[in-house]
């Protein structure tokens, strides 16, 4: 359950649930509107969440091809 929460729950909450708040922010980050920056950065952070799931939960289950 924790693996699901880290891999899917955190990115879902960040992108979908916080979108009304992000849409209300009227600032630019590096010349890009904040909402576009938010979505772009969460594409990267979603990969980081999936990597964390793999490192903490699944990397021990990988069979060696020796």
TrEMBL record:
The keyword Transmembrane helix applies. It comes from the Bacteria. Keywords: Membrane, Transmembrane, Transmembrane helix. The chain crosses the membrane at residues 34-57. InterPro entries: DUF3311 (IPR021741). Pfam families: DUF3311 (PF11755). This is DUF3311 domain-containing protein. It comes from Glaciimonas immobilis.
């Amino acid at each position: 359950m924790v693996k699901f929460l880290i891999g899917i729950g955190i990115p879902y909450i960040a992108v979908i649930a916080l979108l009304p708040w992000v849409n209300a922010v009227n600032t630019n980050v590096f010349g890009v509107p904040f909402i576009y920056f938010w979505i772009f950065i969460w594409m990267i952070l979603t990969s980081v969440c999936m990597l964390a799931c793999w490192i903490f939960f699944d990397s021990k289950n990988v069979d060696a091809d020796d």
